[in-house]
Design a protein that fits this description.
By secondary structure, the chain is mainly alpha-helical. The protein has a single domain, classed as Helix Hairpins, CATH 1.10.287. It is built from four helices and two strands, in the order H-H-H-E-E-H. The protein has a two-stranded antiparallel sheet with strand order 1-2. The protein is rod-shaped, with a radius of gyration of 27 Å.
């Protein structure tokens, strides 16, 4: 049965209309519940994201300061060669989880077993070591903040889609 077209006024058509109207109202309730759950999850993610972002900026400024000191003391060639020769010490694994039928990436940061630095102490100074240590400590926090930001974006897209469906259902069908 199509809505908004001329329909013969028979008892069968009336029963079809009542049944489809009931289904439309049930779907409306389900979409409204989904919208409420999405809003609640977005609010929770925003709080978590602000907490995660709060502890990043000060250590990040310290890292930039240490790297800048290393560039000034050692020169760009030395710092660049140390950076290129250093193997990765962290791995980031990405897997997805579902929240209200929305795929959200979840990041896991794992530290590789590297106890020693691959560069010699004669060619470098403490600012490179300090920056490397701080980056190693800060990377999981940065990944967690990025995870929350991406989750908020994905949930907002799903909320927008759900709201459009709900509006279409209310304004066109019901």
């Amino acid at each position: 049965m199509s809505f908004g077209q001329n329909v013969a006024a028979t008892k069968i058509e009336l029963l079809k209309y009542k049944k489809s109207s009931q289904v439309a109202k049930m779907v409306q309730k389900i979409l409204d519940d989904k919208r409420k759950v999405l809003l609640k999850n977005i609010e929770e993610m925003i709080e978590e994201a602000s907490k995660a972002r709060g502890g990043i900026w000060d250590p990040l400024q310290d890292i930039y300061k240490s790297v800048n000191e290393a560039y000034l003391a050692l020169g760009t060639n030395t710092v660049d060669s140390v950076a290129e020769s250093t193997p990765p010490v962290m791995e980031v694994d990405v897997h997805t989880r579902r929240v209200v039928d929305v795929k959200i990436p979840a990041l896991t940061v794992r530290e590789k077993d590297t106890k020693s630095m691959p560069y010699g102490f004669a060619d470098t100074n403490s600012s490179i070591d300090r920056a490397a240590k701080q980056i190693k400590e800060l990377l999981p926090k940065i990944c967690k903040a990025a995870e929350y930001e991406n989750s908020i974006f994905s949930l907002a897209k799903a909320l927008e889609k759900t709201q459009k469906l709900l509006n279409a259902l209310e304004n066109v069908i019901i």
